Recover the amino acids of this structure.
């Protein structure tokens, strides 16, 4: 695998479920990001990690919980989501914060 | 913090015409300006970027211009083709601050 990968590509879950999204980057980057993309807000930054340390949390509800165990992996743990959380969740990475970001293919999430 | 505005939100052109998308930014210290293209159902991909020490950069049919005084930068696509149809995002960043994205422009190129 090259670049930034995300699994699963599609996810349907009920409001009471718990699931996790996974992102892996094979670029040797030091920063990783989670974005939410919906029709209303095209690219909404959720979390930023630099060298496994969270450096930004953009007022994201606590039902979204990120985890960055190392500089190559990023997770987004989901629990008790709402239908309005249905969106495309994009992971990205960059050599350093503020530089060119490489995006993963995204996870299309549907909350029933 | 930085704020990026992008216009227009939608743009329709005929094949062969030129398309111009403009972004303005608020922080005069911003020094990196990338443009991303997102085709339907695909990930955003970098198509061109420019740094503040350069006024213009070109790559085949795509060019980006930067006006630091006015704090705006533009994407120019010449001889548009149907495969140029996509959503285009501009972004800006300063030093080691996060990229701030514009709201996107949906470009439709009609044959």
């Amino acid at each position: 695998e090259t670049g930034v990968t995300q699994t699963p590509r599609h996810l349907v879950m009920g409001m009471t479920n718990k699931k996790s999204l996974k992102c892996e980057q094979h670029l040797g980057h030091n920063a990783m990001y989670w974005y939410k993309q919906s029709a209303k807000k095209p690219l909404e930054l959720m979390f930023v990690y630099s060298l496994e340390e969270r450096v930004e949390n953009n007022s994201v509800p606590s039902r979204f919980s990120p985890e960055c165990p190392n500089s190559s992996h990023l997770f987004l743990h989901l629990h008790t989501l709402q239908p309005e959380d249905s969106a495309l969740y994009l992971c990205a990475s960059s050599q350093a914060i503020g530089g060119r970001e490489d995006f993963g293919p995204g996870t299309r999430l549907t909350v029933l | 913090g930085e704020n990026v505005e992008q216009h227009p939100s939608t743009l329709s052109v005929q094949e062969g015409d030129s398309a111009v998308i403009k972004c303005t930014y608020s922080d005069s210290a911003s020094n990196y300006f990338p443009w991303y293209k997102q085709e339907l159902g695909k990930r955003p991909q970098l198509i061109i970027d420019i740094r503040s020490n350069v006024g213009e950069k070109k790559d085949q049919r795509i060019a980006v211009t930067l006006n630091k005084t006015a704090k705006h930068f533009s994407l120019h696509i010449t001889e548009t083709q149907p495969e140029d149809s996509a959503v285009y995002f501009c972004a800006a960043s300063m030093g080691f601050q996060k990229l701030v994205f514009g709201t996107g422009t949906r470009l439709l190129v009609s044959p």
Chain B has a mean pLDDT of 96.
